[in-house]
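Fold this sequence, please.
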Amino acid sequence: MVTKPTKPKTYLSILKTGDRKYFEAAQTSSDYALGGNPLNVLWLTGLGDNPPKQIMNLDSYYDGIDDPIPGIAPYGPAHRCDWMTRPNDNCKGAGPWDSDYAFDNVYSASDVWPVHEFWFDGLYCPPAGEYTVHQTVSTSTAVYGVLCQPGGKRKPNNEPEATVTTEVKPGSVTVNVNATDKDGRIERVEFYANHKFAGTITKAPCSFEIRKVNEIQPKIEVRVFDNKGAKTVVKL
């Protein structure tokens, strides 16, 4: 009797066989997921220049943390009828929580639109913003871990350092930021007033004027990002 060899049952076990073709396939797929796609989206929260910003974790919007924690891989683009279809609904979508709804209300000629561009931040839409530990988080963690430098020599990215001062004037507040990054460069500095986005600066010198409303000093927040996605937040 001839016994067939046992095939690896998981993506990670395939990579661990040591066969170069599996490693290269995983590397190519990871390149696509980490920014080399039609939307230029890096499918991990908090990383890179263009990560998902509104994932579906509704209770986290009440924890006082403005952004989702880094490293979460949400679901991505979906075909029509992939999700949440109901009997006799013709895959038109029951509401904005269903990605099929967007095909008829957001995209023009969605039947010829590129499938991998069927996505945008939608925190109430499971196909767009939801994630699971067993489907997306653990898989991405395992694959990216295998592809990292052997021997554990890769050093984590350090957060940028920032010093923020203000100049209070009649009618406005000027915010001055001095930011440095020991293992990279400063990518951008974002300014928020009373929890609302006010503007971005990408080059030094970094000074930004925020207007007062009725001469009331606003709550100011400065977010400094480096070129690898690490962030430092200063609240005034």
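The chain has two domains: 1-76+119-154, 161-235. The longest strand covers residues 161-169.
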